Amino acid sequence: TTHDEKLINEAITFIKACYDELQLSEEQQQERINEIEKEILQTGSYTHKTFELTHGAKMAWRNSNRCIGRLLWNTLHVFDERDIQTADEAFDKLKRHIEFATNNGKIRSAITIFPPRMNGKDPLRIWNHQLVRYAGYDEGEQVIGDSTSIKFTKMCQELGWESKKTPFDILPLVIQEDGKAPKLYNLPEEMIKEVPITHPDYPDLKKLGVKWYAVPIISDMRMEIGGIDYPMAPFNGWYMETEIGARNLADEERYNLLPKVAEILGLDTRSNHSLWMDKALVELNIAVLHSYQEAGVTLVDHHTAAKQFKSFERKEKESGREVTGNWVWLIPPVSPATTHIFHKRYNNQVNVPNYFYQNEPS
Ligand code: HEM
Ligand SMILES: N=C(Nc1cccc(CNC[C@@H]2CCCN2)c1)c1cccs1
Question: Which of 243, 309, 331 has most ligand 2 atoms within 8 Å of CB, for mutation?
Answer without folding.
Answer: 243
